[in-house]
Amino acid sequence: MTAASMTQTAEEAALAQLIVETLNLDLAPDEIGPDGLLYGDEGLGLDSIDMLEISLTVSQRYGVKLRADAGNNTEIFHSLRSLSAYIQGHRQV
Amino acid sequence: MTQEAARLQEWARRPERGSLPLLRFGVWVARCLGRPAARLLLYPLVLYFSFLCPAASRASRAYLARVRGAAPGFAQRFTHFLTFARCLLDRVFLLNDESAAFEIEVHGDEILHAIEAQGGGCLLFGAHLGSFEVARALGRRRRRDLPISLLMYEENAQKIRAALAAINPSLATEVIGLGRAGSLIAVAERLRAGHFIGVLADRNLDGHDMRRMDFLGAPAAFPQGPFRVAAMLQRPVVFMAGLYRGGRRYELHFELLAAAPAARPANMQGWIEETMSRYVARVEHYCREAPYNWFNFHDFWA
Question: Which residue of A17, A47, B43, B300 sits 20 to 30 Å from the alpha carbon of A7, by its own alpha carbon?
Answer without folding.
Answer: A47
